[in-house]
Amino acid sequence: MTIISWIVLGLLAGAIAKAIVPGYQGGNWFATMILGIIGAFIGGTLHLFIETGSLELTSADLSIIGVFVAVLGSIIAIYLYGTMSRRRL
């Protein structure tokens, strides 16, 4: 995947994931893009693990299935970031 397709996939997946997850996530377009790229790696790795059973770091591609997988990975990334950044009393 080229860097341009990573940027497009990251913006698309990050924006869709932020729209799906309730609450305020904050961040500008750059943070949304980084969230989407991280989500593409999380989703691509989980997708490959479910398909083949091997755990390798891979990214989703710029296709319908790839965007869906990247959005699911972005939702997981939002959830993980939210649980790790909560303050404990």
Chain-wise SSE layout:
Elements: H1 3-20, H2 29-52, H3 64-85
What does this structure look like?
The chain is an all-alpha fold and 89 residues long. The protein has one domain. The protein contains three helices and no strands. It has helices at 3-20, 29-52, 64-85. Helix 1 crosses helix 2 (29-52), helix 1 packs across helix 3 (64-85) and helix 2 packs across helix 3. The N and C termini lie far apart (44 Å). The model has no long low-confidence stretch (mean pLDDT 85).
Overview in brief:
With 89 residues, the chain is an all-alpha fold. The chain has helices at 3-20, 29-52, 64-85. The protein has one domain (3-85).
What would you call the shape? globular
Task: Give, in order, the helices and strands.
Answer: HHH
What's the N-to-C terminus distance? 44 Å
Helix content: over 70%
Radius of gyration: 13 Å
Domain count: 1
Largest sheet properties = none
Mean pLDDT figure: 85
Number of strands: 0
| Poorly predicted runs of 5 or more residues | none
Structural class: mainly alpha
* Percent of residues in β-strands: under 5%
Number of helices: 3
